[in-house]
Structures are given as structure tokens and as C-alpha cells.
Amino acid sequence: xxxxxxxxxxxxxxxxxxxxxxxxxxxxxxxxxxxxxxxxxxxxxxxxxxxxxxxxxxxxxxxxxxxxxxxxxxxxxxxxxxxxxxxxxxxxxxxxxxxxxxxxxxxxxxxxxxxxxxxxxxxxxxxxxxxxxxxxxxxxxxxxxxxxxxxxxxxxxxxxxxxxxxxxxxxxxxxxxxxxxxxxxxxxxxxxxxx
Length: 195
Hints:
- The protein is mainly alpha-helical.
- The protein is built from four helices and four strands.
């Protein structure tokens, strides 16, 4: 009977991405200021190479030892600054390339293959006007009383209902419109100041 072999699989999400570090030389001694990520070593090496190649063409102090010291200091400072950049999910090289490509694209973008032309800004005119207040309600006509109700048999009793249109007559002095909402109060205040 054969025993099945066990297989171990490890899966790491982007949130657990560990950078590869370079911290020791081949003989086991520590690198000064290390450990460094692969990105730091690549950028630092590129800066060191560019500084050495352009020393006689673009810059020079006139002394070889001072030039080498300046080159080493700038390369180390660049390597240290790259190590301070927070690690994100996005590759820095692709972020740089995307940023450079965005500089050469049209400001408004493109729609159906053509550059969008935005209209020049202009002043928009207009005004506002308060609505005119409502005219006062006319006094209601006097209400005539209902005719006498007809007699009904005693066996059927119905509750009495008070009709709304039989309210007592109101005199015009009492019938003044009183504002109920804030807007009506504001309109009444405007009317009283203009009159």
C-alpha cells in the first residue's frame, strides 16, 4: 500500500508581497546602510553609471577625487530616497511611463477618435423676481339657513351632521388673511414696506 505524497502550496496576495532584499556580500559581511531592495540597487547603480559617464561632459569640479566623492554621495542619496518610497501594488516603472504618456495626451481627452474642444467660458446673464403677492380674498356671501328637516319616523334615528357650509357669516374685518407659512409672512412684510 502506497502512502500519497503531501504537496504544499503557498499563495500570497498583493497585501503580503515581501520585497527581495540584498543585505550581505558574497563573503557574508553586511553591506553598509543595507539591506537594500532590488529597486534601490538598480536605481542607485544607474545613477552612479550616469554620473560617471557624464562627468567630463556635463559636470566636473576639476579634481578627480572630489568628482568621485560627489558621485558616490549623490548615488547613495538617490538609493536611500528610493527606499523611502512606499511600496504599492503598482510597478514604479509603469507609473512613470503612464505619467509621461499622460503629458502628451490632449487635455480634454478624446471622443470617437477626435480631440474634444471645450467651449470658452462666458458670463451667463439672468435675474430673479419675487412673485407678486396674492390678492386679498373677497368677503364670502351671506349664508342662507337650511330649510327645516322633514320629520322621520321615531324608529329610525340618524346622527345629526353639521354641515360645513352653514358656518356663521364672517365680517370682512375679521376675514383678513393671516399668513400661515414663512413665505407668506415674507411676502406680507415686503408688501407692508413697499406700501
